[in-house]
Every structure is written in structure tokens, then in C-alpha cells.
Design a protein that fits this description.
CATH architecture of the largest domain: 3-Layer(aba) Sandwich
Distance between the termini: 54 Å
Largest sheet: 7 strands, mixed
Helix content: 25-40%
Oligomer: single chain
CATH superfamily of the largest domain: Vaccinia Virus protein VP39
Bound molecules: S-adenosylmethionine
Length: 339
């Protein structure tokens, strides 16, 4: 019989970080590193006196090495890594950003490490012009970014373009190749996790932030009417095509989770998957507003398997919850409440 080591999930996960690839051109940390490499330790010997380990102690890390490891750039890179990389954006032209839609330009993160966005836009004038025309309110911000961008070599510009595209890879997939999102293995969680929560037969159902319709696939046939609310036009077109067999009872609407284009108390079931959390209170108020008395709001998946603020707010509002397995990503939570 094999004798396996006991395994504990209660342990810290150590993730390897490639420091070289953390140091991106155009950042303060990159410049600092270059100077360190060229002129040596840049007078950091002032710290040497703190280390008296030359004969007996363990070797210490150089201060310059610590600088690299804890740079703000490194922290921002980790945030970028959190964006799922559903396609290899390094193969795409930066012009793909001209497929982005108005909501995306409103949601653009304002904290670009090392002005990667400014550099990429400076060298891609048509994309810059498109952004300014599509979102005139952002013109001042975009203009400042481009003005702050220095002159760069073509290789640096390309690195910046790829860094920007990686950070918004999910948005690029929605507007460029939504079928790639639809194929993602993490969407293949067990349908019973949704179906066991309510009876969908003959019901009026709204799904907010429908994406490619993962939640609706399971319930559309039984439903009386389905409202698929989705702010991205490219996804709305995808939904209309994917569910064309249900035309007549499958209505696709433009809207936000904080601004749903439906009257009060019209739905038996209000669904939302992978969309709750940016403004929890406002979102839950709106989801519950469109549910009939006795109707149900279901978030599936509603959250990561964490007792974070999003979770606490749901529990305080009377939501029940349980954990289930989502392929690739692991444990997720679903939440439901009768209104
Ligand atoms: C990760 S996808 C989830 C799609 C689908 N519900 C699912 O579970 O697979 C998030 C979707 O929510 C949409 N979305 C993002 N922000 C939104 C908002 N504020 N209001 C409504 N939908 C939003 C996105 O366009 C995208 O289609």
C-alpha cells in the first residue's frame, strides 16, 4: 500500500516571481535598476554598516536587490496577473483597442504602472484619437498621459502595448473573440448548482451581466421570458445569435447592474454571475428592486470562497450561501435570497 504524505490546504502558497520581467521599461524602478547596473551600487554602501555578517553570519540581501523585489511596479504586476489571460494578446495589434466600447473607456484603470498606457497611446495615434472621440470626458486624462510619455524605442513601445493588453485581456476577449470566453473551462461548473436553487418553469427571469449567457443556457428552455442585460454591444450581438432559437421570449437589453432597464417587481428570478462586487450595496438594491415579492435573487458564482466585505454584506442582507467547485479557479460561492 502506498503511504502518501498527509496534505494540508492550510499553508501559504509561494508563487515564483521573475524579477527581470517585473522591471518594465518606462518605469522609475527600471531606470533605477539600469543606473545600478551601470554605475554599481549608487552609494548604497551607507547601509553596509548595518550588516556585521562577514565572518559568522548568514549572507544578507543587498539593499538594491530588495528595492527591485518590493518596487511598486512589482506590486502592480501582480495586480495585472490577476486579469485572466484567456488569449495570447502578444499576438495582437494594439489597434484591437479600437473595438473597446464606451463602458470600457469609463472603467479604464487610472493607475497604469510606469505610464505604459501613455507610451502605448503616444505611438498609436489612431487608438488615442478613437479613445478621445469615444469618451470625450476622458480627454484631459488621456492627453496628460501622452504628454508625460517620453521618447521610446520601438521594442519598449511594444512591451508597453502588450502590458496594457494583458491588463485588459478580459475586455479584449469580450469585444474581439467572445467565443473564446464561451469556451473557457471555468464555466463548466455543475449545472445542478444553479438548477437546485429554484424552479425555473414558466418563470420571468433576468440575468444581469449575461456575458455569453452561461447562466441562461440552463434555464431558457423552461422559462416564460428571459431578459439578458449586458452593457457590451458585442456581447449583446453574441447573445442574440447564440439564443436565436428562443427569439420572442429571449430579450437582450443594454444595462448595468446598478442601472437595470426593467420596472420594479417584474421578475420571478434575478440571476447574476461573476459580476457582483464593485458597488455591493447599490448592486443588491437594484437586483432586489426588479424581483417580485416572493421572487428570488441568485448570484452564481457570487464571490470567491472568502469571508470578505462582499460576503459580509450579502449575509447581513439575509442571503444564504454555499460553496461549490468551479473548474480551474477552485472553490466559489453561490448566494440566494427570497425577496
Ligand atoms: C465575467 S463575465 C460573466 C458573464 C456571465 N454572467 C457568466 O457567469 O459567465 C462579466 C460580465 O459582466 C459584464 N459587466 C461588467 N460590468 C458590469 C456592470 N457594471 N453591469 C452589468 N454588467 C457588467 C461584462 O460585460 C461581462 O459580460
Amino acid at each position: 500500500m502506498p503511504r502518501f504524505k498527509p496534505y494540508s490546504y492550510e499553508q501559504m502558497l509561494m508563487i515564483p516571481v521573475d524579477l527581470k520581467s517585473q522591471l518594465q521599461p518606462g518605469t522609475f524602478e527600471f531606470a533605477l535598476n539600469e543606473i545600478n547596473e551601470i554605475v554599481g551600487e549608487m552609494g548604497l554602501s551607507v547601509f553596509d554598516g548595518r550588516f556585521r555578517n562577514d565572518e559568522t553570519g548568514a549572507p544578507a540581501d543587498r539593499v538594491s536587490a530588495l528595492q527591485k523585489g518590493f518596487s511598486t511596479d512589482s506590486l502592480d504586476r501582480r495586480k495585472e496577473m490577476a486579469t485572466p489571460q484567456w488569449i495570447d494578446v502578444s499576438k495582437l495589434s494594439f489597434s484591437v483597442l479600437m473595438l473597446l466600447e464606451h463602458p470600457h473607456l469609463m472603467w479604464f484603470p487610472r493607475n497604469w504602472p510606469g505610464n505604459e498606457l501613455g507610451i502605448a497611446l503616444k505611438y498609436n495615434k489612431p487608438v488615442y484619437d478613437y479613445f478621445c472621440l469615444k469618451a470625450p470626458d476622458s480627454r484631459t486624462w488621456l492627453n496628460d498621459l501622452v504628454e508625460q510619455a517620453g521618447d521610446c524605442r520601438q521594442s519598449t513601445v511594444r512591451q508597453c502595448e502588450i502590458a496594457v493588453m494583458k491588463r485588459i485581456c478580459d475586455w479584449i476577449v469580450y469585444v474581439y473573440c467572445p467565443e473564446e470566453y464561451d469556451k473557457q473551462p471555468f464555466l463548466k461548473w455543475n449545472n445542478d448548482e444553479l438548477l437546485c436553487l429554484a424552479d425555473f418553469d414558466g418563470k420571468v427571469i433576468a440575468d444581469i451581466g449575461s456575458g455569453t449567457g452561461r447562466l441562461l443556457e440552463q434555464v431558457v428552455a423552461a422559462a416564460k421570458t428571459v431578459y439578458a442585460v449586458e452593457p457590451i454591444e458585442r456581447l449583446r450581438r453574441f447573445l442574440r445569435s447564440k439564443f436565436s432559437a428562443h427569439r420572442g421570449k429571449f430579450l437582450v437589453l443594454d444595462g448595468l447592474i446598478t442601472d437595470i432597464p426593467l420596472s420594479d417587481k417584474v421578475c420571478d428570478l434575478v440571476l447574476a454571475g461573476h459580476v457582483y462586487g464593485d458597488a455591493p450595496e447599490a448592486e443588491l438594491r437594484e437586483l432586489e428592486r426588479i424581483a417580485k415579492a416572493g421572487g428570488m435573487v441568485i448570484l452564481c458564482p457570487g464571490n470567491s470562497d472568502l469571508d470578505n466585505d462582499g460576503h459580509r454584506i450579502l449575509v447581513a442582507r439575509g442571503y444564504q450561501w454555499s460553496t461549490f467547485h468551479e473548474p480551474v479557479d477552485g472553490a466559489k460561492r453561490k448566494y440566494w435570497k427570497t425577496v
